[in-house]
């Protein structure tokens, strides 16, 4: 199978008065059609920068190198007007904070209708409205025809995140990028949004790039997990394999912080972990599809 997305040797650098800062450092991974891959790692490890780079939404001061192959096109090399035609249509993003991702002074119906019209200009007003109402219905907003003209502040946080998911899916993208989509929500609502995301992904057959710092959340949604540290992948493996047999000390330290049924919290820390050595050499395949960095 051809991967849907191939990120190859992606590096992103920010320049400031203090000098250069490399947020993403020679990063490579791929996602198959319909697959769900999670990116996990501590704050500042480069997860959001990676997501924004894929959709070319980074700050213009960011300098990028490498390739982002979406099917046969390298998105790093598309002109902006070509990228506008791809963004939201091939790949769409669900952000962490729905209140800032939605326009506070525009009704949600109008915002969804605009998202449809960007990519489907020939549709009549009535058809767009119908699609928008169906989109709200699909994410379980009650009485969507009555809520169409309401503004974001008239919805709960969980409902706003549902609306953002509806908006991301309205043009049937083949890739959904969800950056910490449940972090801003309380725990019971988090579980509902995860269920919704999983259901919508199944229904639309889309691939999912799911970003979180929380391994227990990732375990519920990802088929494969890539662990990031300082802009690099330190370990990547099928989800069950990563939980059952984590290789890199950094992955183990993340797992040790999560109470799960899989992790053995009583396992003694390996010597390398105990003294804080983090292997930063090449990625080596230790089992089929399971890669980890080893000492140089
Ligand atoms: N616009 C920017 N200008 C300068 N530096 C930036 C910018 N955006 C991100 N960075 C830097 O890039 C690095 C990676 O940031 P990123 O937002 O990708 O982290 P993250 O893994 O998503 O963390 P979190 O879990 O906190 O969301 C950080 O050191 C951050 O300060
Ligand atoms: Mg982030």
What's the tally of helices?
Answer: 12
> Could you tell me the strand content as a percent range?
25-35%
Name every ligand kind in the structure: adenosine-5'-triphosphate, magnesium ion
Q: Name the helicity range.
A: 25-40%
Whole-number total of structural domains:
1
CATH classification class = Alpha Beta
Largest sheet entry:
8 strands, mixed
Architecture (CATH level 2) name: 3-Layer(aba) Sandwich
Pattern of helices and strands: EEEHEEHEHHHHHEHEHEEHHHEE
The CATH superfamily is identified as P-loop containing nucleotide triphosphate hydrolases
Shape: globular
Low-confidence stretches: 263-269
CATH topology label = Rossmann fold
Count every beta strand, where a strand is a DSSP E run of 2 or more residues.
12
**Average of pLDDT:** 91
Q: In terms of structural class, how would the helical and strand content be classed?
A: alpha/beta
What does this structure look like?
Helix 4 (108-119) packs across helix 5. It is globular and about 60 Å long. The chain has a single domain (5-230), classed as P-loop containing nucleotide triphosphate hydrolases (Rossmann fold, 3-Layer(aba) Sandwich), CATH 3.40.50. The chain is α/β, with parallel strands linked by helices and 296 residues long. Strands 6-7-8-3-9-10-12-11 form an 8-stranded mixed beta sheet, with helices on both faces. Strands 2-1-4-5 form a 4-stranded antiparallel beta sheet, with helices on one face. It contains 12 helices and 12 strands.
